[in-house]
Amino acid sequence: MSASNSCKQLNIPLNRVEGDLEIKVNIEEGLISRAWSSGTMYRGFENMMSGRGVLDGLVLTPRICGICSLSHLTAAVEALEDISGTKPPDNARRLRNLALMVEMLQSDIRQSILMFMVDFADQKAYASHPLISQAHARYAPLAGSSAVEAIKETRRILEVVAIIGGQWPHTSFMVPGGVTSSLGTSDLLRCRLILEHFHDWYEKKILGCSIHRWDQVNSRESLFEWLEEKKEHQESELGFFLRFALEAGLDKFGQGPDNFLSFGGFSLPAKTKVHGTHGQLLPAGFARPGRVDIFDPENIAEDVSHARYSQKHISAHPEHGQTNPDPYTALENNYSWVKAPRYNGHAVETGPLAERIVSRDPLFHDLINIHGSSVLSRQLARLTRPARLLPHMHTWIRELSDNLGGKFYHRVKYIPDGAGAGLIQAVRGGLGHWVRIVDEKIEHYQVITPTTWNGSPRDENQEPGAWEKALQGTPIRNLEHPVEAGHVVRSFDPCLVCAVHSIEKQQKKGGLILRGGF
Amino acid sequence: MKKIIVCVGSVWTEEDLAGQRVFELLQHVRHPGGIQVYQGGLAGLNLLPFLEQGGRVVFVDSVTGHASSSKVIVLNQQQIVQSQCRKHYGHGAGLPYLLAVLPRVCTGIMPREIYLVGIEGQCTPESVQEAARTSLDIAANGTCGHGKEL
Questions:
Q1: Which of A73, A105, A410, A457 has a CA positioned 20 to 30 A from the CA of residue A178?
Q2: Do B101 and A66 touch (CB under 8 A)?
Q3: Which residues contact A66 (CB under 8 A, 6 or more apart)?
Q4: Does residue B80 belong to the interface with chain A, where contact is any CB pair within 8 Å?
């Protein structure tokens, strides 16, 4: 990880990912030539699970993360159902899917407006951008009109989870065999009204058009036609994002490995009007330029060649992988506490853009076919994902109302010894929990989060992780304020934190350190 | 007047266990004066519903850089907001962000009083006991937080 005399090396502790992520980049002639991503904190949740009771994962793993706890709950319960061979009844599927979708809606809006587009209001970075004053009025921290509205609306939608789960936060309403709640007519009516309110707001303020109209945007050309069509489109958050991002050139950098992975998500009830692929709303698959292959979980392996762990084999399937922290390894080569998961040996990107590519969405295929993926295409996929979810949420609420007498739970007497996995499409991409039960205790637990895929270090073939690759070629206009690098990493919505949330006295974060000698 | 205690932090991290430990002490006890105790976990901005019901809200959490190790401190609303200069939302946005943005996004009744009972660094059985007693006392009677060691 050394820099030659001809290039500058920057150390970028990224704020808004809580300081647990550090990016080092080499810059040559104004472009990032190489990047190294370091997760700077050891967590080791897997080892804490060992020896615990079979059902403990349902209570403990949702607490891994403060903002995607339902994703972890879903993966944990599906792993136990995989072991026990249990399938939940249709109503349970509907409630689980609804809750997880609410988590996605909330996260997509908050990430887009509060964490990504807030950089558009950065007067230092975009002083000469023609839309800077509008961006500041919309996205300024704590005061921007769009920021305040996003907090209010995303707070309200969460009430659906509280109704479904019976409590918030820390609901554990998903259990092997179904859910612990069975909603009545008035509960469903409340969910419906909250959802309809959010739907109206999303169409009016985020899209600037109906979801039906947005569905017709199926190519780069039609995206520009949509943008030019109406003032409402241009003034919506989506329209403003496109106008600002195109002017800032965010469609021209941030190309990842362009290998896309989706575990597939939202298992469909046996009887439903929602259509999917192989029993799932979001299809599973591994996409490379020009093709989408079937996803096979056996092709997953975690490489520790550049991570701070020791393991019998450099690369191992999560069912057999270990989490042995080794803080004494040389930092020069073993530079991250994040392992490097690979699919069939390939570094991959996972998340909303991967979902659209694996789903063969014509708009996103067209966007990346010519110039590859970019900051713009990745963020566009996230901002428009709610449009792919909301119609199905309405359908499932209607189906629940029509089947109130249906079952919400199949009794599961016990979870037998054995091994299983819960692989789902979480907010930030593919999430997997691998569990092995021996003598009615958890013997082995491995978690691979979406950020482990996207923020992985190099592997034994020196192949960089997804955002390490995406940073290559990124232009940096101001070495003292590399906002472009932040755009690239944030477009993946990194989540390395969810651990320590301590009130620290007057700590300044987000600075930029030019390393000695440059 | 509504009186609630919200214990926040991560059950997974030693340095962030204070809120959880206090919650474990208080959760099964019936408290006088209708004081309610909640586990807030890492919910961050999603703790807003606790702050839209008026009354007095006491948070319990780990703190860093305010006092010597294992000491219990009390901060008022202004001191909590001023404890971090960061104005941006992020995955780790905690109480300072929540309270800073609260006046602009509150759709219910703003709390009359907000306090934080903090345990500096790693908690001990004694500091957890003290923080639990202090939380109950402040929830019941209020106080004027000075951010000083008790």
A1: A105
A2: no
A3: A498, A501, B41, B42, B43, B44, B91, B92
A4: yes
